[in-house]
Amino acid sequence: MTNGDKIFKAVIEDSALISYGGYNPDDYDSLQNALDDENVVISTVAKIIYYQLRGHSEREIYNEVTNFLKNNVL
Fold it and tell me: Is 58 exposed, middle or buried (0-12, 13-18, 19+ CB in 10 A)?
């Protein structure tokens, strides 16, 4: 398990996020696998962590996540 996987697991185990996203955190064990998950909450959290770990700027992360949400939620 990578550090990214550990961070991802810690974030998705938040009870408020679970309630909002309607997912079971035990179903997710890998940041990489969660990037394209059909649950928008899971994939958004994964994308934020993924881009942060790869050294993207806050602006780049914001743009990537905003575009993803526009294309998948709105």
Answer: exposed
